[in-house]
Amino acid sequence: MIKSLVVILLVLVIGGAAGMVFVLTADGEENQSDEQSLDEMVEYSFQTEEMSTDLEDGSFVRIQFQIVADSEKAKEEVEKREFQTQNILIKELAKMDRDAFKEGLSNLESIMKDKLNEVMHEGKIVDVYTIQKVLQ
Question: Of 36, 55, 117, 136, which sits most exposed with the smallest number of CB within 10 A?
Answer without folding.
Answer: 136
